[in-house]
Amino acid sequence: MDTNSLKWFGDWIRKARHNRGVSQESFADLCGLHRTYVGGIERGERNPSLLNVFKLLEVLGWDRKAIEHMLCQAAGNSTFDQFPLQQIFSELSHDSRKVFWMCTPDHSRLLYVSQTYEKVWGLKRSDLYNDWRAFTEAVHPEDRLRVRKSFQSLASLTSVKEEYRLFHPDGSMRFIADHGFAVYDSSGQVVALCGCAEDITEAKLNWQQTAALSAAVKEKVDREMQARSIAQAALREREQLASLSAAIGMILCRSGPIAQILQECAEALVLHLEVPLCHIWLLEPEAGILHLHASAGPLSRSEAACSMAPLAPLKVSLIAQELRPVFSNSAQSDETVADIQWAREEGIVSFGGCPLLIDDRLAGVVNIFSRQELSGAHTDALSAVASCIALGIGRKRVEERLSQSTQLLELVLKNMEEESRQRLRQAVASQSGEQEDRCQRTKTLALNPDIV
User: Where does residue 360 fall: left (phi above 0), alpha (psi -120 to 50 degrees), or beta otherwise?
Assistant: First the structure.
């Protein structure tokens, strides 16, 4: 509409509202429109759409059937130019993004299309009046069939809403939101189909760009969070390894029985690797048997049945036989685990063990059971600790042998000293006896010179 028409229409709406004693705010609520929008219409500052005009007229008491009757008259006329609402359509069709259209119920003839069609579709209105199918021919092939079926069923529905893509002659693609509705006569028969097709390309592209940007940002954040989580996990594992190595080093530097030291090492492994069970076995070379010397953790067991393990094809024995680490994250199904039923009942998931080697010879085995899968950090930590424990065992054994040798030497020296003292006493006693004999003979000669 031009400015005068907008002011006239707005003034007419305002007077009609006053005559009914309805406030502007209540009127806007009844119309389902914003109060600011209705105020702009009444001041002649807003150009309402055809659908909003219908809303305003209905709330003001206009019978919808009367409005549809005028549209019915247009459907029966030979040309749409004779239709009284032609001026309303023309004046409401200046929105550069909206295309208003109207056709017969059987889609055989186009009754009206607004001037905006030429801008949005990029085609002439005269060609569309000659061939109504051109309206959907420009629709994207992937959307065309859906759109045609939807609007062909419009006559049996109250309204239809569709979004589709449109190829423009300039090579661009437009996004269209089309809202169609049927017009009925007083007998309930459909006499015309109307609709408003709005170009939503800008909003759609903005939404797509925003969605793509949001997805890219989310993906980047997820990658960063994942990388940070991995880095934090690796840092925790390194800290665990460093803490465990330090604890094992301090334990091995202490003096005391080897059994006590091994028990403290097993407890340190349970604490720092967060596992429920740790065993340390030592080999008795002559019998070829592994004896359990240390057991720690909530699941620690010290039954006689597991206090020794002959070199059989089980996990611990397998490590002892092959002299290599063994790790498994399928403890509940691994036949080489001695007690699969126990592993299932206790929720044990993984097993790890390493040989204790001294000069490439087996000294024992250290193994752990875990309710979580063992990672590379766990295997590295257990391997490093096994080397430290083996060195500690070797050093303790050397210290024990050295202590035994020292004790033996001290005993030998003590015996030698005692023997030397005894011999010295004997020699002194012998010399004393001989001296007494000489003194006695001297006295005897002095008293009896004739003896000589």
Answer: left
Mean pLDDT over 109-119 rounds to 84
Task: Name the domain count of the chain.
Answer: 3
In the sheet that holds 159-167, the strands lie side by side as: 110-113, 98-103, 190-199, 173-184, 159-167
Pairing mode, strands 326-328 and 159-167: unpaired
Query: Is the residue at 448 inside a domain?
Result: no
Distance in angstroms (rounded) separating the CA atoms of residues 257 and 184: 103
Per-residue pLDDT at 32 exceeds 70: yes
Q: How confident is the model at residue 92 (pLDDT cuts 50, 70, 90)?
A: very low
3-state secondary structure 342-401: HHHHCCCCEEEEEEEEECCEEEEEEEEEECCCCCHHHHHHHHHHHHHHHHHHHHHHHHHH
342 pLDDT more than 90: no
Inter-CA distances, 234 with 54, 244, 245, 385, 386, Å: 67, 15, 16, 18, 21
Residue 268 identity: A
Q: What is the pLDDT of residues 168-224, one digit of tens each?
A: 898 888 999 998 888 776 677 787 888 888 888 888 888 878 778 788 888 888 888
**Residue 88: domain span:** 63-199
Residue 227 lies in a domain: no
Burial 119-130 (b: 16+ CB within 10 A, else e): ebbebebeebbe
Question: Of 140-144, 318-322, 333-337, where does the model show the most confidence?
Answer: 140-144
* Residues 359-386, mean pLDDT to the nearest whole number: 85
Residue 182 φ/ψ, nearest 5 degrees: -95, 150
Q: Which residues are paired to 295 by β-bridges?
A: 279
Half-sphere exposure of 27 (CA within 13 A, CB side): 25
Q: Cα–Cα distance between 81 and 93 in angstroms, integer?
A: 15
Closest CA to 384 of 359, 396, 366: 366
**pLDDT at position 337:** 63
Q: What is the pTM of this model?
A: 0.45
CA pair distance 82, 114, nearest whole angstrom: 16
**Do 258 and 361 belong together in one domain?**
yes
**How far is it, in rounded angstroms, from Cα 201 to Cα 168?**
12
Among 20, 40, 62, residue at a domain's last position: 62
The residue to which tokens 């126990």 are assigned: 342
**What average pLDDT score do residues 325-344 get?**
76
